[in-house]
Specification:
The chain is built from 5 helices and 5 strands; from the N terminus they run E-H-H-E-E-E-H-E-H-H. It has 163 residues and is an alpha+beta fold. It has a single domain, classed as Gcn5-related N-acetyltransferase (GNAT) (Aminopeptidase, 3-Layer(aba) Sandwich). It has a 5-stranded mixed β-sheet, with helices on both faces.
Length: 163
């Protein structure tokens, strides 16, 4: 299915790195987490376009201007015994929301997952972000309230690594 009229979806290129970083910062600001962004253009370039890419990006444009992005990577489900896609970031500029751009990005990821034989598309959403949670439920996504996400980083990660 084609993206909404006026929207162009395309794989990111190395020339998109400054815009991708700008979108990451805009998303982090919206999520009240801008202080946690330490990525720079070189890191984003290496992660997306280096010799061993860690992730991929679909760029969305509206009227020829940058509108949003979806950054994702592969994952593996031991229970399903097959791959899936983990959507790390989905962002559409606030003034362009409600035009189907986010749905177009998710539809493109779902199409990629099904074409590759992947079993699922997973992502996280902040618990206070009720507009996004309503939107995801409207698409048919299930909230996995029985799972609690954990993270080790910074000093705690270093301590565990040292034993």
């Amino acid at each position: 299915m084609a993206p909404p009229q006026g929207t162009r979806l395309r794989p990111a290129t190395p020339d998109d790195v400054p815009q991708i970083l700008a979108f990451i910062r805009e998303l982090a600001d919206y999520e009240k987490m801008l202080h946690e962004v330490c990525a720079d253009e070189a890191m984003i370039h290496e992660g997306l376009f280096g010799p061993d890419p860690s992730a991929a990006v679909i760029m969305a444009e509206w009227g020829g201007e940058p509108a949003g992005f979806a950054l994702y990577h592969g994952m593996y489900s031991t229970f399903m015994g097959r791959r899936g896609i983990y959507l790390e970031d989905l962002y559409v500029r606030p003034e362009l929301r409600g035009r189907g751009i986010g749905t177009g990005l998710l539809r493109a990821l779902a199409a990629e997952a099904t074409a590759e034989g992947d079993g699922r598309l997973d992502w996280s959403c902040l618990d206070w972000n009720e507009p996004s949670r309503r939107y995801y439920r409207g698409l048919g996504a299930r909230e996995l309230s029985e799972w609690i996400r954990y993270r080790l980083d910074g000093d705690a990660l270093q301590r565990l690594a040292r034993g």
